[in-house]
Amino acid sequence: MLKPLGDRVIIELVESEEKTASGIVLPDSAKEKPQEGKVVAVGSGRVLENGERLALEVSAGDRIIFSKYSGTEVKYDGKEYLILRDSDILAIVQ
Amino acid sequence: MLKPLGDRVIIELVESEEKTASGIVLPDSAKEKPQEGKVVAVGSGRVLENGERLALEVSAGDRIIFSKYSGTEVKYDGKEYLILRDSDILAIVQ
Amino acid sequence: MLKPLGDRVIIELVESEEKTASGIVLPDSAKEKPQEGKVVAVGSGRVLENGERLALEVSAGDRIIFSKYSGTEVKYDGKEYLILRDSDILAIVQ
Amino acid sequence: MLKPLGDRVIIELVESEEKTASGIVLPDSAKEKPQEGKVVAVGSGRVLENGERLALEVSAGDRIIFSKYSGTEVKYDGKEYLILRDSDILAIVQ
Amino acid sequence: MLKPLGDRVIIELVESEEKTASGIVLPDSAKEKPQEGKVVAVGSGRVLENGERLALEVSAGDRIIFSKYSGTEVKYDGKEYLILRDSDILAIVQ
Amino acid sequence: MLKPLGDRVIIELVESEEKTASGIVLPDSAKEKPQEGKVVAVGSGRVLENGERLALEVSAGDRIIFSKYSGTEVKYDGKEYLILRDSDILAIVQ
Amino acid sequence: MLKPLGDRVIIELVESEEKTASGIVLPDSAKEKPQEGKVVAVGSGRVLENGERLALEVSAGDRIIFSKYSGTEVKYDGKEYLILRDSDILAIVQ
């Protein structure tokens, strides 16, 4: 298993179609398009200058929207993942 | 439903015409033009270096003016939204 | 009415002539020229890293000089305004 | 009268000649040349992240040397002034 | 022996093949590709602005994934190592 | 006399020859070459974000080595000086 | 003698050969190559924003590896030294 460090999360990509199961459709525009994923593992959070460690706002299992072109691709046990910083996560799909 | 993270807000666009219902008219100039929107959901706020989480100044339902070209477009359940950081919000229309 | 957020202020432009009523004349030079305005509304101020919110140094009604080319133009109820950050304000005309 | 904001000061320019009254001569070199001025008014100072407001090191009446090309020119009541940040002031002439 | 300073770690490279022993396969894409390594020694951590020294999240012996092209190569006693900052470490392989 | 502000110091240049009195010789290389000087006056120091003013590490009379091309030249009472920030000082010659 | 300021250290270069006495060999690659040196003198450390001065992790006599192309060359009493910031030091050779 992969354990992300700091404020990083590991996600599985949810392939974007015109209309996904959760109802998100990415528009046809020149703007940066977000992508959808599912959180697999989260880091222990970043440390503030007062020494406090700040827990992430997302948990394993959450479906999220993140900024496209962010993160690093990795394959593990034959599956593809993406390692993101939590600041690249835009919203949780509830 | 979409829940924005940190200091982000989700808004519905209010289409800008020469003169909108709320009385805002965007001028004809070379300067960056603001746009109008309605807040749909707000994040829990950014965390200060002393560990305190700072609540946003806007709430769901507020009509706002924001900097054009800021934010990320997303469609959800067939409707278009924009995810902004609260620092891209210029003013509340009261 | 428009309520600016954070450290922003909303001003009415005072049209700059060679010599304005308040006695300010903008010089003929290659340097950045300031402009004059009147404060219409002020935000609640920016938040310091210790959580304290810092009140602005200007109030509604103040005549100010600000850096030209700063801020965002907006029309509201048929009148033109400019939304500035308070760091773009150079001085108060007393 | 003009009241500068924050860490800004308003100065009157002292025209630089080969040798000024106070004895400062600007050298003939490719380096950035400083200029001399007299402080007319000072702001209330910048605010530290602990909320404390830091008084300026210069007062009205001080003769100062500042970095050339810094600041913003303004005319008021027919006289020319320069609005500087105190970080552009190099030294006080005592 | 080499003792890294601050938030640095020293690692041995694990040569990346199409499929490594631990099951990580680096994908064929234009994105930045991570690499795998084994931690040999860790620094005492970076110091926060409150004076506290923050221990690293990795220990000697950990298998890690790090951002390719990060770090500095060094040979010591005939073996090749890489000196990284801990912020270049993406995840621990558990 | 000139009183430098904040973390600035005023120095007299010590002309660099192949071998100076204090034994410093500047090498013939493509690297940035340091220069030698003597401190004439020091500022009251920079202010930390906790409000404390940090005294400089150098005093009037110290011989120092500083980064070449740093600082601002000024003439006063017919003598040439250089105004530096203390962060441009590399070492004290003891 | 030279006393470095703040977080600076003064080192003597240890000429890099294919294989040095301490066993470090610099690899033949396009990556930035580190160099070896011996610490001659250390500064009193940098000051944190809480006013605390942070002692360096290296002491006079330590053999270190540092990032090539960092620091400033200086000759003193006929010997060549390099003045570095401690953040340019990668590791101590123990």
TrEMBL record, chains A, B, C, D, E, F, G:
Q: Does the keyword Lipid biosynthesis apply?
A: no
Lineage, top-rank taxon, reads Bacteria
One Pfam family from the UniProt entry? Cpn10
PROSITE patterns from the entry? CHAPERONINS_CPN10
Listed under GO cellular component are:
cytoplasm
Q: Where in the cell is it found?
A: Cytoplasm
Q: Which InterPro entries match?
A: Chaperonin_GroES, Chaperonin_GroES_sf, Chaprnonin_Cpn10_CS, GroES-like_sf
Tell me which HAMAP family the record gives.
CH10
Family per similarity comment: Belongs to the GroES chaperonin family.
Free-text function comment from the UniProt entry: Together with the chaperonin GroEL, plays an essential role in assisting protein folding. The GroEL-GroES system forms a nano-cage that allows encapsulation of the non-native substrate proteins and provides a physical environment optimized to promote and accelerate protein folding. GroES binds to the apical surface of the GroEL ring, thereby capping the opening of the GroEL channel.
Q: How does it assemble?
A: Heptamer of 7 subunits arranged in a ring. Interacts with the chaperonin GroEL.
Question: Under which name does UniProt file this protein?
Answer: Co-chaperonin GroES
Organism of this sequence: Bacillus benzoevorans
Tell me the gene name.
Answer: groES
